[in-house]
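Two folds, back to back.
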Amino acid sequence: MAAESHSDSSSNLRIIVQRNPSESQLSELGIKSWPKWGCSPGKYQLKFDARETCYLLRGKVKAYEKGSSQVVEFGAGDLVIIPEGLSCTWDVSNAVDKHYKFDSSTSSS
């Protein structure tokens, strides 16, 4: 049986958070070879032009997805996947330090 999903395209853009992934999973993804990025506490308006996978080394974030009342919380030790095309506001309560990787699903450049 196939799972069905009935929703408009904007609600398909959802942040996925995996809490405390295993060391073997992080190693398999090659997280430690990814670039690092950090920010201080504050509010940031972000638009993701490519899918981002990131692993938070430290920090705490509440992400408010544009056009949605949904709030997604993540922080140190979480593996987060942010879909391409998502606009959101990050409310950073504790400074963020993360490894990240962008995956462009389209190679039409």
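---
second:
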Amino acid sequence: MALAATGYFRRLTHRLTEDIDQLDAEEMMAESAHASGAQRARDCACGEEVTMYGRLRAVAACPKASAASVEAEFFDGTDAVTLVWFGRRRIAGIESGKKILVRGRLGDRNGLKVIYNPYYELQGDS
């Protein structure tokens, strides 16, 4: 019983003192291991067809009439990827904090990873 209590308090202390971004990264890596076919963003190279599981950290709409788009920062616990949907001002369900599974071809925009018009599946309540 004392060993179980020690483990519990160690985990509790870890969760209370750890950086929030680090905890989020640990949670996303653990969950992505269970997502079918999900790859880690840090292991993916530009030009590859990828499937990744993670959380949307930020979502922004660029409502210019000639080039409307929605951009989201996707994080899977290992690296961030920008998701861009062209021709849209808003996408139902695409909101900060939502967990999603995305599929698409990984590209490069100014040295950062990006996927244009990815296929996505919302994953439960976040």
